């Protein structure tokens, strides 16, 4: 099971999730890391869920067109849209 380490407001939340987990979906059903993960549309349209990937980015699928449109050059700085990520491996991420 992948371990998710989530940094938010100076706190660090750590939990295991099932393979193929979407963190925005889990926040929506009030599972980890609810209520800490900020999100809105869940569809890659608003960028509210933007997170910086601190480790494990190499295990994520390549950014899709929605992430490219919303994040632009922030993708090169390690940012992704949490609502567009399905977690298969350990990951550490931060939301500002
Ligand atoms: S929640 Fe809107 S882009 Fe992810």
From TrEMBL:
Residues 2-96 form the 2Fe-2S ferredoxin-type domain. InterPro entries: 2Fe-2S_ferredoxin-like_sf, 2Fe-2S_ferredoxin-type, 2Fe2S_fd_BS, Beta-grasp_dom_sf. It comes from the Bacteria. PROSITE patterns: 2FE2S_FER_1 (PS00197), 2FE2S_FER_2 (PS51085). Signal peptide: none annotated. Pfam families: Fer2 (PF00111). CDD domains: fer2. This is Ferredoxin. The lineage of its organism: Bacteria, Pseudomonadati, Pseudomonadota, Alphaproteobacteria, Hyphomicrobiales.
């Amino acid at each position: 099971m992948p371990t998710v380490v989530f940094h938010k407001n100076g706190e660090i939340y750590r939990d295991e999730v099932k393979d193929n987990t979407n963190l925005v979906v889990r926040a929506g059903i009030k599972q980890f890391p609810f209520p800490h993960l900020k999100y809105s549309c869940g569809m890659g349209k608003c960028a509210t869920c933007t997170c910086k990937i601190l480790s494990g980015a190499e295990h994520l699928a390549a950014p899709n067109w929605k992430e490219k449109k919303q994040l632009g050059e922030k993708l090169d700085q390690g940012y992704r849209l949490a609502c567009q990520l399905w977690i298969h491996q350990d990951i550490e991420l931060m939301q500002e």
